[in-house]
């Protein structure tokens, strides 16, 4: 049982992790080894205090060095689901489960919207993780919606297991060359099924499938953690970055506009201080 899990490694997560480390919290931090593509891809950043007119790649290197110097470990894994367990939270990834008393969501904003059927059929044929659930589809038909070339090894893995893979990519130049993988243009509009996935619809065309894999960096927080109050696509928080769920906080783009580094960093810091207060209150009520 840890004190805290931080989910997300953009500026909001970095800021929270630095403060958590400074305050000697026992915490786990999940995210991408490159931290955030939204840092890496920025051509020039001109509005971040202390780093005037800097390239995104430079800012990324500065953040990485600061984390290393602080002795912080990032666990390079994508959390697939979070469960409120009463006095603590459980987060699952690749068949592993981690537990902590408090949780900070710093997952950024997802650019792809959830499609009808995605949240409803999660765990009933819809999955966000090929490594975790691929084995369920041996010699079955699956559809994959992939948002980045970095997930292509997961498609290859599915192609080795499934009989047929119908692939939708949101980028050009997919490198997958397997006989049982068929690339389809467009983006699916809905998933059909009641107790389990039955088919996927794209441009009015139905494709019969047993499973649907979404391979994307960021999953809607409401899908990740059921019961979270949302305001359109943003997590509702108060000025302490507290969500409607006890012990659950959120920071950065996932809480709303403006989508800016300085706002994300500031919220990560506020959230961490709120979490310190929450943990102290929990400890004193347990005495
Ligand atoms: C091209 C571009 C240029 C920009 N230029 C500027 C600029 O000049 N100035 C400015 O202020 N802002 C700029 N922005 C906006 C800025 O990048 C964002 O506001 C900022 O990155 C938000 O930080 P964040 O920590 O909230 O989320 P993000 O940076 O989106 O990071 C979230 C991270 O969490 C990870 N994650 C998500 N879900 C999970 C999960 N379930 N498990 C584990 N990890 C997860 C993601 O992979 C990602 O790495 C730019 C954005 C882009 C795309």
Bound molecules: flavin-adenine dinucleotide
| Rg, Å, rounded | 20 Å
> CA-to-CA gap between the ends?
18 Å
Which of globular, elongated, flat, extended, rod-shaped describes the shape? globular
Derived from helix and strand composition plus strand pairing, the structural class reads alpha/beta
| Major beta sheet summary | 6 strands, mixed
For the record, the CATH class of the largest domain is Alpha Beta
The overall strand count is 16
CATH topology of the largest domain: FAD/NAD(P)-binding domain
Order of helices and strands: EHEHHEEEEHEHEEEEEEHEEEH
**What is the second-level CATH architecture of the largest domain?**
3-Layer(bba) Sandwich
The residue-averaged pLDDT reads 92
- What count of helical segments does DSSP give? 7
Integer count of domains: 2
Superfamily (CATH H level) name of the largest domain:
FAD/NAD(P)-binding domain
Strand content: 25-35%
- Indicate the percent of residues in helices: 25-40%
Unreliable stretches covering 5 or more consecutive residues? none
